[in-house]
From TrEMBL:
Keywords: Methyltransferase, S-adenosyl-L-methionine, Transferase. GO terms for biological process: methylation. It comes from Handroanthus impetiginosus. One of its GO terms (molecular function) is O-methyltransferase activity. The keyword Transferase applies. PROSITE patterns: SAM_OMT_II. Residues 78-162 form the O-methyltransferase C-terminal domain. This is O-methyltransferase C-terminal domain-containing protein.
Length: 180
């Protein structure tokens, strides 16, 4: 399993440039350094730049295939992907849509399973902490998103009316957060 598509997408100059504009972004009202540099969101830019769109889609397809195959193998549940590249407000909208889609099957045990990193204080594993912080920075710079702590996930779940959740640490740095 190659991580080349992810590396190519992350190192593509259009994705690297926003890192040089973080200090400028702190001083303006743009939603992200990507927006500061390019004058539009990542999603808008990707819709006009064919190479970026292809690199990103290849990277996300490989990433989704890898983690969904692990999650399905280990969890044996219905699998639903909620990306970390969204703001809290956008995540609330996505979770509300997920909840709407499982309400009719409530008696059948409908679930939403989210494969995401849960930021934790890994005092004994400094590499894991550094990786989590890197991905949090990546989401901040290139998207208007972030990696979330368990407390932040709990707030999103509560806001959208979910009453139970379970965090399972079966996928390394990726966790499976189950909402019932």
């Amino acid at each position: 399993m190659s991580t080349a598509p992810l590396a190519l997408a992350l190192l593509y100059p259009i994705m690297m440039d926003p890192w040089h504009h973080v200090s400028e972004w702190f001083q303006n009202e743009s939603p992200s350094p990507f927006d500061t540099k390019h004058g539009m969101s990542f999603w808008e830019y990707a819709s006009t730049e064919q190479m970026l769109n292809q690199l990103f889609n290849d990277a996300m397809a490989r990433d989704a295939w890898f983690y969904s195959s692990l999650a399905i193998k280990e969890c044996k549940h219905v699998f639903e992907w909620i990306p970390h590249d969204w703001s809290d407000e956008e995540c609330v909208k996505l979770l509300e849509k997920c909840k709407e889609s499982i309400i009719p099957s409530k008696g059948k045990g409908g679930k939403v399973i989210i494969a995401e990193m849960v930021v934790a204080d890994n005092k004994e594993d400094h590499k894991a902490t550094k990786t989590q912080l890197f991905f949090d920075m990546l989401m901040m710079v290139d998207h208007n998103g972030k990696e979330r702590t368990e407390k932040e996930w709990a707030k999103l779940f509560s806001t959208t009316g979910f009453t139970n959740y379970k965090i399972t640490t079966s996928l390394g740095l990726r966790y499976v957060t189950t909402r019932i």
